[in-house]
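Thread amino acids onto this structure.
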């Protein structure tokens, strides 16, 4: 790994992950985990900013998104396996401990890592996705949050993949546009997910949740230093779910509400997030 960010392939856990890496190989590792329907490209500003601060940075295209890490079968996308990928990547990069930053689904994995493997995690920063147990509680108690998360149920259907790809992936394009993702960046995401094999693998993350070893409602509280970032215009996560996260963090905790920001914070406000995100790493 060199100081200047570059794209490379990392073999970890028997899979090949495309990743953007950079920074000082001797620095603390920051692992950046993207969400759906994003990719490592969502961290384009953060990789460079954190590398300049002297961290060792890795932003992978995760399981299903990387062509070399796309096993067959819904069961291959259980959450515990996705968490295992993150640990395997850290091992491959020589990091006994590391900082983890996640957005959306990547945020879900970050919570799991911090809750179930605290001995490996130096700090956790999550954008949008509340603590899994807080999220489940809000969806159960708040009809508005259940509506916001309706795609979780819709994606269980086998035909969901073809529906999302219909008419030149028009549904995905509308989704990204509604999040104010710049058109050029949306094309980068769609170039990666624009085939049935790639998108089906990404949607399998949703389908495999119920097969996982630890269900979201059972994820323990987090005791590592935590930063939670929520844009108060996020169409997918309401205030009740966001604010409930404090009930599931027992260590030091910062809740950063970004006024007017939506779901895709790193696309909308990359500069603001670089500043805010540094708090998670003790800067």
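Threaded sequence (283 positions):
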């Amino acid at each position: 790994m060199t100081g200047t960010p570059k794209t490379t392939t990392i073999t970890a856990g028997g899979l090949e992950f495309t990743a953007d890496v950079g920074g000082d190989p001797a620095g603390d590792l920051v692992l950046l985990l993207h969400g759906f329907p994003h990719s490592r490209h969502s961290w384009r500003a953060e990789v460079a900013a954190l590398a300049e601060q002297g961290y060792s940075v890795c932003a992978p295209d995760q399981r299903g998104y990387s062509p070399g890490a796309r096993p067959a079968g819904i069961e291959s996308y259980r959450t515990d396996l996705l968490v295992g990928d993150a640990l395997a990547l850290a091992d491959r990069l020589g990091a006994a401990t590391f900082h983890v930053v996640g957005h959306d689904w990547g945020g879900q994995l970050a919570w799991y890592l911090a809750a179930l493997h605290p001995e490996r995690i130096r700090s956790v920063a999550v954008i949008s996705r509340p603590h899994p147990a807080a999220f489940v509680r809000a969806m159960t108690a708040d009809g508005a949050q259940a509506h916001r998360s309706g795609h979780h149920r819709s994606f269980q259907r086998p035909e969901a993949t073809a529906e999302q790809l219909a008419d030149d992936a028009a549904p995905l394009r509308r989704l990204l546009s509604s999040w104010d993702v710049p058109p050029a960046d949306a094309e980068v995401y769609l170039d990666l997910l624009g085939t049935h094999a790639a998108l089906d693998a990404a949607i399998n993350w949703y389908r495999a949740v119920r097969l996982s070893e630890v269900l979201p409602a059972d994820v323990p509280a987090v005791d590592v230093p935590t930063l939670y970032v929520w844009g108060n215009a996020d169409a997918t996560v309401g205030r009740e779910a966001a604010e409930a996260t404090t009930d599931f963090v027992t260590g030091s905790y910062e809740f950063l509400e970004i006024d007017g920001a939506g779901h895709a914070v790193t696309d909308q406000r990359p500069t603001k997030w670089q500043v805010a995100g540094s708090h998670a790493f003790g800067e």
